[in-house]
């Protein structure tokens, strides 16, 4: 995720959902929080205090990184303050290490969190999975899931929803996992997905993603299955656009109106691929971009595509105004 200083945050809401990163020591929580280039996380020191960061996106939220060596369930800590306003609990398990102790900690954490906040989303990142073979990844995930659900069932928590994600900072799996976590915190997600479905249908688009530009997580996508390769190439395309815009682009004013509006100077780009497909990038505002996969022969309908994008942009603008009105 791209983290920004408190002074740079433009918040539409005074309430910001909170993501908790928990897990054992050296499980990779701090690396996930920063999502740095992998070579910058290799010798990252263990966290010895709670790190709190603000993330500016379609919805502003906080990321709290808890040190694994501290027992936060001790009576000296206020569990209501820790879990009370949390949108999602992300528990990180090191897939390269023995995970029985981590599963025990996960079980205790889930019970404590649900006692304070029954609506919290429970997410488990099976991390550092890049070194595992494909078969061993599946076996490891299956074993962790089975053991976790067995322990919850023994505690009478059979109906608890827990999502598991294989992640690594060396590929796009961490961005995809964070995308799915963030999507659960967006009440307008069904509306966004419906808008993307209508847009794809009327524009002959194969796949469309609504990206947060800075973090490269996708806020929403259409209902067609998510292909990892298409997501990766769209993410790489955003990197290219950002690199070029730093040279030839301009700095937007840091204002609330700029967050909510679109104008004719937003960046757009088309690149043709060698497989008969094309990538279409359309910046909606300084935070959001629409990235589409379209067949090259359908680019002949460019005027129709531009018109539909304008309609889509207006709809996104209305949704953001609704969020601002609801939070005011």
UniProtKB/TrEMBL annotation:
It is found in: Endomembrane system. GO terms for cellular component: endomembrane system; fungal-type vacuole membrane; Gtr1-Gtr2 GTPase complex; nucleus. The keyword ATP-binding does not apply. The keyword Membrane applies. Its main location: membrane. It catalyses: GTP + H2O = GDP + phosphate + H(+). It comes from the Eukaryota. Belongs to the GTR/RAG GTP-binding protein family. GO terms for biological process: cellular response to starvation; negative regulation of autophagy; positive regulation of TORC1 signaling. GTPase involved in activation of the TORC1 signaling pathway, which promotes growth and represses autophagy in nutrient-rich conditions. It comes from Pneumocystis jirovecii (strain RU7) (Human pneumocystis pneumonia agent). Keywords: GTP-binding, Hydrolase, Membrane, Nucleotide-binding. SUPFAM superfamilies: P-loop containing nucleoside triphosphate hydrolases. GO terms for molecular function: GTP binding; GTPase activity. This is GTP-binding protein.
């Amino acid at each position: 995720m791209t983290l920004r200083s408190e002074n740079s945050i433009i918040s539409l809401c005074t309430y910001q959902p909170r993501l908790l990163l928990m897990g054992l020591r050296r499980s990779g929580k701090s690396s996930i929080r920063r999502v740095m280039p992998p070579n910058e996380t290799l010798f990252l020191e263990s966290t010895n205090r709670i790190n709190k960061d603000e993330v500016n996106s379609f919805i502003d939220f906080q990321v709290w990184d808890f040190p694994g060596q501290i027992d936060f369930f001790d009576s000296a800590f206020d569990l209501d303050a820790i879990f009370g306003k949390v949108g999602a609990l992300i528990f990180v398990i090191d897939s390269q290490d023995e995970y029985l102790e981590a599963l025990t900690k996960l079980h205790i954490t889930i019970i404590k969190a649900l006692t304070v906040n029954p609506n919290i989303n429970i997410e488990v990142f099976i991390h550092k999975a890049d070194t595992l073979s494909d078969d061993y990844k599946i076996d490891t995930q299956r074993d962790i899931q089975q053991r976790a659900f067995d322990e919850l069932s023994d505690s009478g928590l059979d109906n608890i929803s827990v999502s598991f994600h294989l992640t690594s900072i060396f590929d796009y799996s961490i961005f995809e996992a964070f995308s799915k976590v963030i999507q659960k915190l967006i009440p307008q997600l069904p509306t966004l997905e419906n808008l993307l479905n209508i847009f794809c249908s009327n524009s002959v688009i194969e796949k469309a993603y609504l990206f947060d530009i800075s973090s490269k997580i996708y806020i929403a996508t259409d209902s067609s299955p998510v292909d990892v390769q298409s997501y990766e190439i769209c993410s790489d395309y955003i990197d290219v656009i950002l690199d070029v815009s730093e040279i030839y682009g301009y700095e937007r004013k840091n204002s609330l109106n700029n967050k909510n509006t679109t104008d004719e100077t937003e960046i757009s780009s088309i690149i043709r691929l060698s497989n008969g497909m094309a990538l279409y990038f359309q910046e909606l505002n300084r935070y959001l971009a629409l990235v589409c996969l379209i067949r090259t022969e359908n680019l002949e309908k460019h005027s129709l595509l531009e018109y539909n994008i304008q309609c889509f942009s207006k709809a996104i603008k209305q949704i953001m105004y609704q969020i601002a009105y609801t939070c005011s």
